[in-house]
Design goal:
This protein is α/β, with parallel strands linked by helices and about 190 residues long. Helices cover about 40% and strands about 25% of the residues. The chain has helices spanning about 15-25, 55-65, 100-105, 120-130, 140-150, 165-190; strands spanning about 5-10, 30-35, 35-40, 55, 70-75, 80-85, 90-95, 110-120, 160-165. Strands 2-7-1-8-9 form a 5-stranded parallel beta sheet, with helices on both faces. A 4-stranded mixed beta sheet has the order 4-3-6-5. A hairpin with a 2-residue loop joins strand 5 (about 70-75) and strand 6 (about 80-85). Helix 1 (about 15-25) packs across helix 6.
């Protein structure tokens, strides 16, 4: 059985998780980006196979029922999940998850996961979400903000916390995550 190594980023909407992940991937090409599946429609600028694999309900259900998913959750009536074939057993995998996804991944004996909780001020979170699209859905942003306050209130798993409010934080966090990736690879290769 393959042992999957995952460097997971979690955090409320607008904390810069995706930006941070893209910057880490630029700095460390040995990492493998996890591209999740979802049934929600693409947002402005998102592309199938790059941001997500956009599936219809039938396709997602088929993958789930045939045990092709390591984790799957429902959020705001959309399904999200990580298929087994989205991971590379020979590399450290990096991806963005929600708390329920982390909890599900932690139940698998063949998954070793290190979690980083990306934080940002409420002001930065809201501004980032408003500036993400040309015509943002303000009601959806407010709904997500409120939902995140509940979902991230009492996490029941170990995580490392990092602040991501500005360019300096971003650059610092890239170094932290690159070092964490190296430690994770060494630990699991038995060279620790």
């Amino acid at each position: 059985m393959n042992q999957y190594k995952i460097l997971a980023l979690i955090g409320e909407a607008g904390t810069g998780k995706d930006t941070l992940m893209r910057e880490v991937l630029k700095q460390d090409p040995s990492l493998h980006e996890i591209i999740s599946c979802t049934t929600r429609p693409p947002r402005e600028g998102e592309k199938n196979g790059k941001n997500y694999y956009f599936l219809d309900n039938e396709e997602f259900t088929k993958k789930f029922l045939s045990n092709e998913m390591l984790e799957a959750t429902i959020f705001n009536n959309w399904c999200y999940g990580t298929s087994i074939d989205a991971l590379d057993p020979n590399k450290v995998n990096i991806g963005v998850f929600n708390p329920a996804g982390i909890e599900a991944l932690m139940t698998h004996s063949n998954v070793y996961i290190v979690v980083y909780y990306v934080r940002a001020s409420a002001k930065n979170r809201l501004l980032r979400q408003l500036n993400r699209e040309k015509n943002p859905d303000v009601d959806e942003i407010i709904r997500r903000y409120s939902t995140d306050n509940v979902d991230f209130d009492d996490l029941q798993f170990h995580y490392n916390e990092i602040e991501n409010n500005n360019r300096h934080d971003l650059e610092h966090n890239v170094r932290i995550l690159a070092a964490a990736s190296k430690r994770l690879q060494l630990r699991l290769d038995g060279n620790n």
